[in-house]
């Protein structure tokens, strides 16, 4: 069967060189003659994307032999397995990969003929006149094994997928229905051609339809856009990560101005492709102005991206499949885009949904089997010929919807199933500070592992990423989710997740990543200059961790907000560098050290002195009265005596005349009201509560705070200033009531105490009085709009004298006193 014929046009572009169809076929024939490929043999292609890869590929097919395409980034050890398992007779490679090939052969102690494409002198090879007069490339026969491609599984050795030429032809015929390719098309071989999606989509099929392929010498985003404009690219195949990056960049630009946000919303409401193309013409021109549609494959695309691109006048056709199905199972027609769907099931293919919702496939596209592995073949293709994809999904009105991966479903000890992809999508939709997130079961609890978008973190001047993501994103998600779907732990990582070559996250490696078991790239030599060495020494001492030049100061070293205050005072004392958001602007050790080196303005040696910080005067105004606090105390008496039946113990331990720091476990929204109810009115008048500005945004709420002894602070801005305000209260012989956990419990258990109260107590020699709240969480937990009736108890414990204790001892004694009482 003739598959590539001579056309009077360009077949390939590479490094500004144009290769015509005539040249392409001649070069293919010359490599075939040079290599002397034998029928029905297995021949490996192991090289980077370049024209010679396709010359080699089609020369093997033209010889009626089998192509074994291998990832050019494979190590010599990995390559040795592929060579041995596939029983190849020849290896087509490049000078750039030759060293690894030779090392792999040494491991195997084998000699295999190598075809080094850089050494092929095409101009000197003469071919038969009959061939030159009839320039065509032929395919293998339909039943022949045309391809062997290796899949990387989560366990065991990779398996070689055998695809017949008819398997591949099934995909070609099915896409012909949708007119995916036309002779006038120009596409870019963006993804590595060892993978079935780019191999067929950007290597084989464009040539079958006499279209044109562009190879990039530089894989940067700038080079991609330049090539799209220069070569008038009409369609592009990419993985979801590519569209996510492009989408984010476009939407950031649109959302940066009110007028563009309005136009985008208007276009979304009008929902007209022709209107969107006109109004967002510049977006299309940014891609060269000739794009007909994009194609996304490899994994599921966020439907919001598909919808937003449609609003911009650009179509994204999503496909779904796997190597074992050559690869397509379903594809989205370009004139019938359905966001969130994997597309329509292609012709000559049957799909059914099993009882456990697994997607099963049967048809011309299903592989011949795994090479030399009948056991593995029998595991994936049942006796009735159905291939079990391992994916979960539904069929609706001819469209296939993929809802998750069977192996990735999290099965809890109570038998409940959780689809992590759904939760991940919800978390991503709640903030622009997340680049990637994986929800997984780690240490037997549901955990969100988050890789932040550090550019956004820097832009928005976020100094405490962990706190923001945990409480403003994950906690908000938890409040609206079922108990068994709640995320109980958050891990922030400063590195990309491990991925396959086409961008799929290797979920099975996330635990190893968290435990530091994944080998990191070799680090550059460590810098050696005064500022760097001094800052590094401080961080190593403060956090008792290894510190590297590329360590992210907050995430890698686990710096909390108080650590940040101490660190920034260290920078001020030693280098005279003091400014807001210093760490968010320069988040890594080396970035910060370089900035300090360039901007230091004094040599001031000293140590952090909390006494000095706390005793510094502040202009902050305290609330003007406790009028509302007293009124609320009397109003709440009815509620607390009847509905909640509050019992107060230990009132005799309260001292009225000495300034005191009251600390308690934080159970519910009721806690502040419970304190005021439990103590005499005289004490209410002279006790101040701390609250975050975020909860008192309106003028009415600010007025309430000002009349109820509520001090409003921005914890994330400057903790030193917060400490000075609290110190001012205590110095005026008044009291402070603090919940050292920071936020209300989400599960009824106590969280770690922050030590700010201990610093205040120690430096001002003020007693700490712990008190215990019990029952409030059960009656009015976070996320509930209304409480339920029941019993609550408030018990005041013995005061803690702080004179002979250090900060950590004060924290520990306070925590243990409350914890032990709760346990009883």
SSE blueprint and pairings:
Layout (H helix, E strand, L loop, with lengths): L1 E4 L4 E5 L2 E4 H15 L6 E5 L4 H12 L3 E4 L6 H11 L3 E4 L1 H14 L4 E4 L12 H5 L2 E3 L6 E7 L7 E6 H13 L8 E3 L7 H13 L3 E4 L5 H10 L4 E4 L1 H16 L2 H13 L2 H7 L1 H6 L6 E4 L6 H9 L4 E6 L6 E4 L11 E3 L3 E5 L4 E6 L5 E2 L3 H7 L6 E10 L2 E7 L4 E2 L5 E2 L1 H10 L4 E9 L2 E8 L1 H6 L5 H16 L8 E4 L17 H5 L15 H14 L17 H15 L6 H4 L3 H11 L10 H5 L12 H16 L3 E4 L10 E5 L6 H8 L2 H5 L1 E6 L6 H8 L3 E4 L5 H13 L3 E4 L17 H9 L2 E8 L1 H4 L12 E5 L10 H17 L1
Parallel strand pairs: 2-12, 4-5, 4-6, 5-9, 6-7, 11-12, 13-14, 14-15, 26-27, 28-34, 29-32, 29-33, 30-31, 30-32
Antiparallel strand pairs: 1-8, 2-3, 9-10, 10-20, 15-16, 16-17, 17-22, 18-19, 19-21, 21-22, 23-24, 25-26, 33-34
Structure, explained:
By secondary structure, the protein is an alpha/beta fold. Among the domains are: 13-140, Rossmann fold, CATH 3.40.50.980; 411-514, 2-Layer Sandwich (GMP Synthetase, Chain A, domain 3); 530-608, ACP-like (Non-ribosomal Peptide Synthetase Peptidyl Carrier Protein, Chain A), CATH 1.10.1200.10; 627-823, Glycerol-3-phosphate (1)-acyltransferase. It is built from 31 helices and 34 strands. It has a nine-stranded mixed β-sheet. The longest helix has 17 residues, at 807-823. The N and C termini lie far apart (83 Å). The model has no long low-confidence stretch (mean pLDDT 90).
TL;DR of this structure?
InterPro entries: ACP-like_sf, AMP-bd_C_sf, AMP-binding, AMP-binding_CS, AMP-dep_synth/lig_dom, ANL_N_sf, Plipid/glycerol_acylTrfase. The protein is α/β, with parallel strands linked by helices and 824 residues long. Helix content is 38%, strand content 20%.
């Amino acid at each position: 069967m003739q598959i590539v014929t001579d056309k009077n046009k360009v077949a390939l572009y590479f490094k500004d060189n144009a290769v015509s169809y005539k040249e392409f076929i001649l070069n293919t024939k010359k490599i075939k003659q040079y290599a002397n490929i034998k029928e029905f043999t297995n021949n490996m292609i192991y090289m980077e994307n370049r024209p010679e890869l396709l010359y080699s590929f089609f020369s093997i097919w033209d010889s009626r032999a089998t192509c074994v395409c291998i990832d050019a980034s494979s190590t010599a050890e990995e390559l040795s397995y592929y060579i041995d398992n596939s029983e190849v007779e020849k290896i087509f490679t490049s000078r750039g990969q030759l060293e690894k090939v030779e090392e792999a052969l040494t491991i195997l102690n084998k000699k295999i003929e190598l075809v080094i494409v850089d050494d092929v002198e095409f101009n000197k090879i003469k071919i038969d006149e009959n061939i030159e007069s009839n320039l065509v490339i032929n395919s293998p026969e339909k039943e022949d094994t045309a391809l062997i491609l290796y899949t990387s599984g989560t366990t065991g050795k990779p398996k070689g997928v055998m695809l017949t030429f008819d398997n591949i032809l099934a995909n070609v015929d099915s896409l012909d229905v949708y007119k995916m390719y036309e002779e006038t098309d120009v596409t870019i071989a963006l993804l590595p051609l060892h993978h079935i999606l780019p191999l067929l989509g950007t290597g084989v099929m464009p040539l079958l339809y006499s279209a044109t392929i562009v190879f990039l010498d530089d894989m940067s985003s700038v080079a991609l856009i330049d090539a799209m404009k220069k070569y008038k690219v009409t369609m592009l195949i990419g993985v979801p990560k590519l569209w996510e990056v492009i989408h984010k960049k476009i939407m950031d630009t649109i959302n940066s101005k009110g007028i563009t946000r309005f136009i985008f919303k208007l276009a979304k409401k009008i929902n007209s492709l022709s209107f969107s193309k006109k109004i967002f013409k510049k977006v299309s021109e940014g891609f060269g102005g000739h794009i007909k549609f994009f194609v996304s494959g490899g994994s599921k695309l966020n439907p919001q991206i598909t919808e937003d691109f449609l609003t911009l006048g650009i179509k994204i056709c999503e496909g779904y499949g796997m190597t074992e199905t050559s690869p397509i199972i379903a594809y989205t027609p370009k004139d019938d885009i359905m966001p969130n769907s994997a597309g329509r099931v292609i012709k000559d293919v049957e799909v059914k949904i099993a009882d456990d919702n697994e997607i099963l496939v049967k048809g011309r596209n299903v592989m011949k089997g795994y090479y030399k592995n009948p056991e593995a073949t029998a595991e994936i293709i049942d006796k009735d010929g159905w291939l079990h994809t391992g994916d979960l999904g539904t069929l609706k009105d001819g469209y296939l919807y993929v809802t998750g991966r069977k192996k990735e479903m999290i099965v809890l000890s109570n038998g409940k199933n959780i689809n992590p992809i759904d939760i991940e999508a919800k978390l991503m939709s709640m903030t622009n500070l997340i680049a990637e997130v994986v929800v997984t079961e780690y240490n037997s609890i549901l955990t969100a592992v988050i890789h932040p978008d550090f550019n956004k973190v820097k832009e928005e001047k976020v100094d405490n990423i962990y706190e923001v993501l945990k409480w403003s994103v994950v906690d908000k998600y938890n409040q609206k989710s079922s108990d068994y779907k709640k995320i109980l732990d958050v891990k922030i990582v400063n590195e990309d997740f491990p991925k396959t070559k086409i961008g799929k996250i290797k979920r099975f490696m996330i635990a190893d990543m968290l435990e530091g078991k994944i080998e990191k790239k070799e680090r550059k030599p460590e810098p050696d200059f005064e500022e760097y060495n001094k800052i590094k020494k401080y961080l190593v001492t403060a956090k008792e961790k290894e510190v590297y030049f590329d360590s992210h100061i907050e995430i890698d070293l686990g710096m909390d907000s108080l650590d940040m205050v101490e660190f920034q005072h260290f920078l001020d004392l030693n280098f005279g560098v003091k400014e807001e958001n210093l760490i968010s602007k320069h988040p890594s050790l080396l970035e910060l050290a370089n900035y300090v080196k360039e901007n230091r303005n004094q040599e001031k040696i000293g140590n952090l002195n909390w006494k000095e910080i706390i005793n510094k005067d502040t202009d902050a105004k305290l609330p003007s009265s406790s009028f509302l606090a007293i009124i609320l105390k009397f109003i709440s008496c009815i509620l607390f005596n009847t509905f909640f039946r509050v019992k107060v113990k230990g009132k005799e331990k309260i001292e009225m005349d000495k300034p005191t720091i009251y600390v308690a476990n934080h159970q519910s929204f009721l806690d502040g009201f419970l304190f005021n109810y439990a103590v005499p009115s005289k004490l209410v008048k002279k006790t101040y509560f701390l609250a975050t500005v975020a909860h008192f945004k309106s003028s009415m709420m600010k007025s309430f705070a000002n009349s109820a002894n509520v001090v409003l602070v921005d914890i994330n801005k400057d903790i030193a200033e917060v400490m000075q305000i609290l110190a001012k209260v205590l110095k005026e012989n008044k009291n402070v009531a603090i919940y050292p956990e920071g936020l209300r419990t989400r599960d009824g258990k106590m969280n770690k105490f922050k030590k700010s109260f201990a610093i205040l107590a120690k430096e001002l020699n003020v007693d700490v009085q712990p008190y215990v709240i019990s029952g409030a969480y059960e009656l009015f937990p976070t996320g509930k709009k209304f409480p339920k009736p029941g019993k609550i108890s408030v018990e005041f414990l013995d005061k803690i004298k702080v004179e002979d204790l250090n900060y950590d001892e004060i924290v520990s004694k306070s925590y243990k006193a409350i914890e032990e009482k709760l346990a009883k």
